[in-house]
Design goal:
Chain A has 89 residues and is mainly alpha-helical. Chain A is built from three helices and no strands. Chain A has a single domain, classed as Helix Hairpins (Orthogonal Bundle). In chain A, helix 1 packs antiparallel against helix 2 and helix 2 runs antiparallel to helix 3. By secondary structure, chain B is an all-alpha fold. The chains are: A mainly alpha (89), B mainly alpha (128).
Chain lengths: 89, 128
Amino acid sequence: MIDYALLFAFGCFGIALLLNIYRVIKSPGIGDRILALDTMVVNAIALLALYGIHKGTTVYFEASMIFAMTGFISTVSYTRFVLRGDIIE
Amino acid sequence: MLADILISAFLVVSGVFGLTGSFGLIKLPHPMMRLHAPTKATTLGVGGALIASMLFFHFKLDQFSFHELMIALFLFMTAPVTGLFIAKVHLHRNETPDTLPPTSTDRPWASYESDAERAKIEEAREAD
């Protein structure tokens, strides 16, 4: 039963990632593009957690932790750059 | 058996929430509405996936890991910050003070208030 639920969750997050890529390529404004990239990071973390369940190993949690940190920093620096024209003032 | 049902339920719910968040990013008409969908629904979805993984490692493999809690805590702390910054990008690029709804006070939206105006108001408040 867990296998089917895992397959369903993989499918959902995979489709979500494809929708985010569509939004990054075809976006009405810069804010939506940043938001889509941020959502891509969150979906990738979910996929890494699911892959850890699938393989039965905890190795991938370090990877998702680093993903979470770099995703947050990159989103904040992108928005700072758009708002102020500079990242570190 | 009960653990199987619980883990499967968390996995399915997390998948539905994640897909809803990303679909809302495509579907909703206004930029502020589009900001609402991924910051809430997708964060909940990834939280569900992490809880499912924690339950799986506890019940199936008999090992307890704190990593999921760390990741969930980090995501739940950073999601509002990124949401605020993206909202500010939208306010400053696509809107002017005239196109926004009124604040019902004599002060403008905090994002548009200049430092000089804010200092004057603070001084007046301290003098009272």
